[in-house]
Amino acid sequence: MNDMPRSKTPGTASFSLDISLEAKLRFAGLHDALGFKTKAETFEAIIYAVSTRDKIDAAAVERIERKLDRFLERLDDCI
Asked: Whole-model pTM above 0.85?
């Protein structure tokens, strides 16, 4: 239980959720895997990723990935 008073950081808001144990464990796994310093950074990254997911054209992402693959192949040939 976390009943300790929190210090308020300027420009931030407190956000509390009641979630299942499974969701808490998944979040902890994501936090570890993503490597952010704080859980707040991890949460913000997840919110950002979800909010922008449908805004980027899937065809454009595929073109970028193909170009990146070709670039990396050429880079490997040069090394």
From this structure: no
